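TA notes, week 10

Several of you asked for a full example with nothing omitted. So below is the full record: structure tokens for the whole chain, then the designed sequence directly under it. When grading your own attempts, check the secondary structure regions first.
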């Protein structure tokens, strides 16, 4: 198995300490603080360990930045076990304080009314360059002190429809799109719908918040910018596979009060399988004329 696949599966597989309490390891994925997608994926997996139903929604708040050098404890509160819906509350605890909270709802797959927006038209993933290839084309822009971390390959394969140069951003429309999947198929011994959902939760936090920065000609690397995920919601509409390409289509509708609101839709085989919403902090440390 691809080592990046193995690392991703290990990251999203938690150790059970006792009933309803799990421990997840941390990784330095995007910088000094724990990547929000890691906590989303681990919290969803912790809740999923307590039921045999797939999740249909997750609503989460990021409260404090996490320490990449320390494990995270996940406490699951079994709020409700109903005939149709199962509800769980998850607290992520590190160094004695709650850094993240989520409510997760689970429900069985049902037949019923069906409708969806039309899938947007983009080039097929096979016709696009990988994020790794696109990053290599920016090598002349990358400062030496961040080159290694910027060029590090992600735990999932990403094929952007178009890559904005984060070192020289220009004002653009508040839209973004990319294809995402794991580097290799999920091995049979790990092939569980709960893992596929946790992987999607993991990568749903990669570029969603940056969409609201585009109209301002800013990127997450802009030196005057303080940015962080504040809350995150995922709706799981239909079954999917995280090891097959998923189109992630993103848009931002408003930036106000130093916050930006971003929406994402995930498509696979022509079906809308997930929807995401995230509000992020986007505060200028120094107000500049723009």
């Amino acid at each position: 198995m691809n080592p990046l696949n193995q690392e991703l599966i290990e990251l999203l597989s938690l150790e059970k300490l006792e009933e309803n309490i799990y421990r997840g390891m941390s990784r330095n994925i995007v910088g000094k603080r724990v990547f929000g997608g890691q906590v989303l994926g681990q919290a969803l997996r912790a809740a999923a360990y307590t039921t045999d139903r797939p999740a249909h929604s997750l609503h989460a708040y990021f409260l404090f930045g996490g320490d990449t050098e320390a494990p995270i404890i996940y406490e699951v509160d079994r709020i409700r076990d109903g005939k149709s819906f199962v509800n769980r509350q998850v607290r992520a605890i590190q160094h004695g304080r709650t850094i993240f909270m989520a409510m997760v709802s689970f429900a069985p797959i049902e037949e019923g009314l069906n409708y969806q927006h039309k899938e947007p038209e983009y080039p097929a993933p096979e016709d696009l360059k990988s994020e790794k290839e696109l990053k290599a084309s920016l090598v002349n822009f990358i400062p030496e002190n961040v080159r290694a971390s910027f060029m590090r390959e992600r735990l999932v394969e990403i094929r952007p429809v178009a890559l904005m140069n984060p070192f020289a951003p220009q004002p653009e429309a508040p839209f973004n799109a990319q294809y995402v999947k794991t580097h290799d198929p999920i091995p049979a011994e790990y092939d569980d719908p709960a893992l596929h959902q946790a992987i999607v939760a993991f990568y749903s936090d990669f570029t969603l918040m940056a969409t609201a920065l585009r109209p301002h000609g800013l990127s997450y690397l802009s030196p005057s910018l303080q940015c962080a995920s504040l809350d995150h919601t995922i709706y799981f509409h239909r079954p999917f596979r995280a090891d097959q390409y998923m189109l992630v289509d993103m848009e931002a509708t408003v930036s106000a009060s130093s916050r930006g609101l971003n929406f994402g839709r995930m498509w696979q085989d022509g079906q809308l399988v997930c929807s995401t919403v995230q509000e992020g902090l986007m505060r200028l440390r120094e107000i500049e004329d723009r």
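Residues 71 and 229 are 20 Å apart (CA to CA). Use that as a sanity check on your answer.
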